[in-house]
Amino acid sequence: MKFLGDIQVQLDEVACLGIAELLKSPSMGEFTREGFVNGWRSAGCDNLQKMIAHAADIRARIPAEPDLFRRVYRYTFPLCRMQGQRNLQFDIAAEQWRLFFTPEHGGIQWNTPTTPWLDWWIEYLEERGKRPVNKDLWEQVEVFLRKTLEDENFRWWSADAAWPGTLDEFVGWVQAKRGKSAEEMEVE
Q: Over the Cα atoms of the chain, what is R_g?
């Protein structure tokens, strides 16, 4: 972890996960020689000052570039899983969502004028018993985030779409919390 400090990256920011993705870290806090060398080479960084500059660039680009954000977000799922597990423990997933979906940590703000999405999402999952998060749900939460930021009224949502059941149920939970039934909502 000293290395991350040397390149001015904090453990509690999305840029740390961006560096892990760049260097193909096999698990949290671990770098292989091959991943380290190849990652920095691909970024054109051959000294500490260039690495610091590249880390700052990653920090700025992650929230601004959806493709980079998605790549780092998706890389985080296997990175944070416990060895031998297929799913991500709820507490770890919630911690990562708080990192990715708040600007204070270099992520994207998952709130809209009338909906505190991140807080509601975690509250909903806690009410359901803090179940482990599978890869499909993990990946679709990021897609769902983008849709809700475009239109918080769910005009894009369809019960027939291929969303994970947990997200379908969350839509119903949000509707109930807002005081709207499914029939009252405008959906495609």
A: 18
Compute the distance between CA of residue 165 and CA of residue 64 in angstroms, rounded to an integer.
Answer: 29
Q: What is the pLDDT of residues 113-165, one digit of tens each?
A: 999 999 999 999 999 999 999 999 999 999 999 999 999 999 999 888 889 99
| CATH fold match for the domains 1-80 and 87-188 | yes
Domain boundaries, the chain: 1-80, 87-188
- 180: nearest Cα among 153, 144, 150, 141: 153
Q: If one looks up domain 1-80 in CATH, what number appears?
A: 1.10.238.10
For 53-95, the pLDDT digits (tens) are: 999 999 999 999 999 999 999 999 999 998 889 999 999 999 9
Q: How far is CA 50 from CA 12, 26, 56, in A?
A: 22, 23, 10
Residue 29, sorted as left (phi over 0), alpha (psi -120 to 50) or beta, turns out to be: left
> 83-105 burial by CB neighbour count: b if 16+ within 10 A, else e?
eeeebbbbebbbebbbbbbbeeb
pTM more than 0.70: yes
- The CATH fold assigned to 87-188 is Recoverin; domain 1 (1.10.238)
Q: How far apart are CA 37 and CA 9, in angstroms?
A: 18
